[in-house]
Amino acid sequence: MRSLPQHMQVEASGGRHEDTYPIGAQGKKSSLAHNGQALYCERVVDTDQPLYVKDSRLESDWAGNEDEVEFGLSNYLGYPVRGPDGEVYGTVCALHEDAKKYSAEERAALDEFRKKVEAQLARDLK
């Protein structure tokens, strides 16, 4: 996901939910959303910290968020992606419809993917 001033935008997508998040799709950031609730990826960008939500339906900060309501995705793991200038560019993330714990290996794999995305950005945004 790429962070734009008013939206989070899908830059790449894969897996079972690829059709849910087509490239170019955008979600309004919390200041523009009808309920003022932050998107998962928006929180990662704003805090520059990874975010894990085991089950949004059981967490008051996340219950009723857009991904849960619109797409049935209540589980999230995401990491900030920095551009070559060191600023947060966006996120890499995994979403799931069921409560899920991520193993150390799964977390490491997503973090390795984050590093690859940052390397690609460094080449593309010179």
Can you put this structure into words, describing what you see?
Helices cover 28% and strands 22% of the residues. It is of the alpha+beta class and 126 residues long. The chain has one domain. The strands form two sheets. Strands 1-2-3 form a three-stranded antiparallel sheet, with helices on one face. Strands 4-5-6 form a three-stranded antiparallel sheet, with helices on both faces. The relative contact order is 0.15.
Q: How would the blueprint of this fold be written?
A:
Elements: E1 2-3, E2 7-9, E3 26-28, H1 40-47, E4 51-53, H2 66-71, E5 75-82, E6 88-96, H3 104-124
Antiparallel strand pairs: 1-2, 2-3, 4-5, 5-6
Keywords:
3-stranded antiparallel β-sheet; alpha+beta; 126 residues; globular
